Amino acid sequence: MSSRRVIATGKRSTEESTKTHVDISHVHAVKVLPKQCQRLHLIQIGCGGIGAFLGIHVARLACECFPLFDTVMVTFYDGDTIEEKNLRRQNFCPAEIGHNKAEALAFRLSTAWGIPIRAFPRHFSEKEAQPEYDTLTILLGCVDTTRARRSLHHALARWNTRNDTQAWLIDGGNLTTHGQVLVGNVVKDFDPRESFQLRPVCQSLPAPALVHPELLKRERRPANTQQRSCAELALGDPQSLTINSIIASHMADYLLRLVITKDLRRFATYIDMDTGSARSLAITSTEISRALGLHQNKSMGRAS
Questions:
Q1: Count of alpha carbons within 13 Å of 145, Cβ hemisphere only?
Q2: Residues 133-192: pLDDT tens digits?
Q3: CA dist., res. 149 & res. 154, Å (int)
Q4: Domain boundaries, the chain
Q5: Residue 284 per-residue DSSP state
C-alpha cells in the first residue's frame, strides 16, 4: 500500500509516494530548545488566506508570552488590499474592503487584545531582516509564491548571523485540500549530529526549504498563461473554504510548543483533508536525515 504526501507551494504541488507502515518514531522524539533570550519578536509575513486566521492565534499567544519575556513585539507584513473576492476564504469582513490586509488585521486584533501590533503595508523583503540584541525572532510564513519564500529563506540566514540572537521560521502552505507546516532555523550545511549534542534536546532544525527545496523553485507556466490568485482559485472550489484555518491552527500549535510550553517534538506536518488525516515527522536524528536524504551514520545513534 502507499499513501500521498503533497507539498503545497501555493501555486503547485509535488506528490511523493510513501509506504504505509506503523510509525513509532514519535516514541523517540526529543524536544527542540530555542535560544533563551530576553526579548521575543513575532513577525507574521502574509495576512491573507492563512495569515488572516493565524493572526488571531498570534495575538492570543503574544499575550501569553508577556510574563515569559521582558519585551514582546508583534509585526505584520502584507502588501495586498482586501477585495470582495477575499471574503469567502479569508478572515475579513465587508467593512474592511479597500483596506490593507496587514493594517486591517493589526488594527482589529490590537484593539481587541490591547497589545501593540506594528503593520507594514508592503511585501516583506529579506533586506528588512535586522538582528536585534538578545531577541528570539519567530518568522511566521503565510505566503503563496516562491519569490516570497526565497525572501524568507534568505532573511532567516541574515537573522542568525549573531550569537546573541536566534530566528526560527514556521512556514505554512496549502492547496485546495492539502497542506503542510514546517519549522527550522538552519539554512545551509545542516548536520543532524550537531543538533543533538545536548541530549535529550534538539538545538536546531533544517529550514523548510532544506526539507523541501521545491518550495524555492520558480513555477514554469505555459506562455500567455495568467497566474490566478488564491482568492480566484477559491472561487472555483468550495472545498478550499476550511483549509486556511486548519493550516493556521497547526502553525499556532507549533508556535505555542516552540516558545511557550517548549515541548515541540515534530518538524513537519502534512495535512490531507480528503482523508481527514495529518502525519508529522518526529524530531529524531534518523527522521531528519531521512527527510534531507542524508546517509544515516551509525555513530549518530538515535535521539532519545
A1: 12
A2: 999 999 999 999 999 999 999 999 999 887 778 999 999 999 889 999 999 999 998 988
A3: 9
A4: 2-216+229-300
A5: -
Identify the CA nearest to 58 among candidates 149, 143, 154, 170.
170
Backbone angles phi, psi at 275, to 5 degrees: -105, -5
- CA–CA distances in Å: residue 125 to residues 46, 79, 173, 193: 12, 11, 19, 32
| Identity of the residue numbered 107 | F
Cis peptide before 213 (omega within 30 of 0): no
Nine-digit cell string for 127: 533586506
The residue length of the chain stands at 304
CA-CA distance, 126 to 187, in Å (whole number)?
14
Is the per-residue pLDDT at 106 higher than 70?
yes
**Where residue 288 falls among pLDDT bands split at 50, 70, 90?**
very high
Q: Which tens digits make up the pLDDT trace of 192-203?
A: 888 988 878 999
Q: What is the pLDDT of residue 2?
A: 40
Query: Domain 2-216+229-300: what homologous superfamily?
Result: NAD(P)-binding Rossmann-like Domain (3.40.50.720)
Per residue in 42-62, pLDDT tens?
999 999 999 999 999 999 999
Helix, strand or coil, per DSSP, at residue 112: helix
Instruction: Cell numbers for 13, please give them.
Output: 504541488
CA distance 129 to 102: 18
